[in-house]
Amino acid sequence: MLKYSKVVGLAVFVFLFAMCNQKSKNEAESETILKGSLDITVDETIKPIVEDMVAVFEGTYYEAKIAIKPKSEAELINDLLNQKAKVVVTTRELTTEEKARFEKSKINPRVTPFATDAIAFVTNKGNNDTLIALKTVIDFLQGKSDSGIKGLVFDNPNSSTVRYMKDLAKVKELPSKNVFSFKTNDEVIKFVSENDGMIGVVGVNWLYQPSPNMLDIIKKINVMSVKGLNGDGYYNPTQNDLGEKKYPLARDLFIINCQGYTGLGMGFASFISGDIGQRIVLKSGLLPVRMPGRNLKIRSQIIKDKE
């Protein structure tokens, strides 16, 4: 009887072991580079371009489902470092300290650049002056009262645009006077469109790809031409000026993948940095990392239409 019990116990153990292995196998096979589900945390200042990428990716690979979670840059990086987010799209690379934290956890982040974006200054249509020197903005951020700026409007105190401008001005905090902040780029644009003299600081992606409810509001603002710290020319956040490295507020976009295995994050990164993804970037008004090629068909003779 004891021998029989041991045999039964062994059989149950083998069965459960086989079931566990099968379950692990099924879980491993549930996600590949082209199928499965994935959450991507996205810097909210570049949400429109990522939405376009995801829509085309899911339309091409029907078994892939990607959920976009827009957050401020500070929240995004914090989630990534604490492993609450595995794949993020951001406007900067990891710092030396951040890389060291990943090395300590034996995680090797895969960083893929895919576009060049820009920070834009926008003003009300009623403002006839559409030119601004970057030094004027820096003077304002450094608290110099004679800067001549009535007020700056940001999207979020923790956003990438705020961090970028603070780094540029070499200040730890924004001035407490005449600086306004909201939650989204759309709110900044709307506020500027309704208030003369204010200058909004937004990701240019929101201007090139406005949501349907923002189309009429966009018509009420001007995108300002910016003079850099060196040189006398004023330039715009266009593909041409970004490509020629003339616009002084350009920034690169990256997808950072910390999944640690060959999953959907790797597939999506390959997609957006590949030919189709780069064409989407080009169409969006941003600058691709690599210009998509064009195929030309050369005919030996002209075929005349039959009369």
Short description:
The protein contains 12 helices and 13 strands. The protein is α/β, with parallel strands linked by helices and 307 residues long. The strands form 2 sheets. Strands 1, 2, 3, 4, 6, 7, 8, 9, 12 and 13 form a 10-stranded mixed β-sheet that branches. It has a 3-stranded mixed β-sheet with strand order 5-10-11.
Terminal CA distance reads: 97 Å
Number of helices: 12
The helix fraction, in percent, is: 25-40%
Overall radius of gyration:
25 Å
Please state the second-level CATH architecture of the largest domain: 3-Layer(aba) Sandwich
Outline type? globular
Question: Remind me, CATH topology of the largest domain?
Answer: D-Maltodextrin-Binding Protein, domain 2
Largest sheet: 10 strands, mixed
Structural class: alpha/beta
Signal peptide: 1-20
InterPro entries: PBP_domain, Phosphate_ABC_transporter
Protein name: PBP domain-containing protein
Keywords: Signal
